[in-house]
Amino acid sequence: MVTHGSSYELMRNLKLLNEPSINLQRDDHLQLIRQNLRKYIKEAYEKNQHAYNLRTRPRAIDIGETVFRRNFSQSNLEKSFNAKLSPVFIKAKVKEKLGNLYYVLEDEDGKHSGTYHSKDIRS
């Protein structure tokens, strides 16, 4: 009975193990290693993809919908304006959709306020 991994080395030296031995060419051996690597890389990719996408939700904002856009104001000493005291989000309306994640927004009074990524928009 083998109780420790180091016993295998001793048993191999005494030729007590009947292990099948296959002499592979270098190219064949490397091909087997590459196949295993592909399998492990694919498994790791799928595991990481699942963990990354676990808490993401697809966003669908319709044209004409009222949303809140992030306010990117900066402080100004001359005007005595402190940005940290300004509102973080400002009410806006979706004017058009650009691609999957970008939206053209306008303020409540109809003034063009710019293009915003969906991460900077709250419904």
From TrEMBL:
<protein>
    <submittedName>
        <fullName>Uncharacterized protein LOC131804166</fullName>
    </submittedName>
</protein>
